[in-house]
Write a structure and sequence with these properties.
The chain is mainly alpha-helical. The protein is about 75% helix and about 0% strand. It has one domain.
Length: about 240
Amino acid sequence: MDINCGNSSYEDNRTAEVKFRDASIVLTILLSGVGVWIIIYAFWEHLGRPVPVSYMVQAVDLLGVIMCATAWHFTSTFSIKELGLIPDNPKKTFLQTLIICGFSLVILAAIKIFGQLYDPSLFQTERGFFDIRRFNSYQVLYLITSFIQEFTARCIMQTGLKRVCAIKHKTIYAIIHASIIFAIFHIEYGFWFMIGAAVLGGILGIIYEKQKTIFGVWFIHWFLGVAAFLFGIINQ
């Protein structure tokens, strides 16, 4: 009997067992996280929204941290590179991110222009078309919020789903499902915001797969949120 063949078969079986175990854990964490958040949201609505939406954002960020920590503890260890914390080409990532942010700024400006052509009172700010005075400490703290959200959505959900999937188009599957879950975690903002979050999640998921690092999508997420607030497109 070929000993090497036997060892190879054992390793294959062991790898399959680990992947099945990780798949079960990741799916359990995602389903539990979504379920818990829907219950929290329903209770918040039942009480007549007793706390501001900003408190709910902090709550979902805390839930994201708990989900990340649970996945990290109970699944086989993800490498730092696999999590996208070490960029392959920092200069290329930086330039791509700046270009995407530039295009995003133009798109947001176009959305405001056409929106106000339809309804002049839409997307109003206190001062001007683009109100830089709206930038405050919350926008700085949003750097932390956007990192937590992207780490949860990309490094844990998307990478985790892709890692345990055994289907042909596992990357597309992972991006779609991570984007849907990402949208659910924005339920407190309403239906259209959820649709926008799902679309943004899909775009960021594609960028993450191209860049292989969280840093680009993290900055884009933060930049879009801040720019949309300064344009008055988002007012929360």
